[in-house]
Amino acid sequence: KLGEERKKGKGLYPFSTWSGCRKDTPRLEVEKQIMSSINQLKDKISILKEIKKKYDVNSYMKSVPSIFNEEAPYVHYNQKIIDFCYQTGTELGVHLYVFDTPKEESR
After folding, report:
1. What is the model's pTM?
2. I need a labelling partner for 41 at 20 to 30 A (CA). Which of 82, 86, 90, 97 fits?
3. Is 79 in a helix, a strand, or coil?
């Protein structure tokens, strides 16, 4: 998207993005959601480091739990997550979506 017109907003995109290892299975346990992606990437650490160095890439792991009826997400980063992020220069983020409607009614 670098240099393309923004679809919503003004100006051009000053960056490009790529997304991988997306999991659409609903989970409130952030640790399990992130570990699911890391398990797919852990044998590619050297490749990820090479890409980061060669192309000046920023890496992010984002977890997006949806909260219904005052459910509480469990946000925890175990040592494997921290090690993977340290080795690959990956940042972690959590984006919460809170809904007042019960899960069954929102579908």
Report:
1. 0.74
2. 97
3. helix
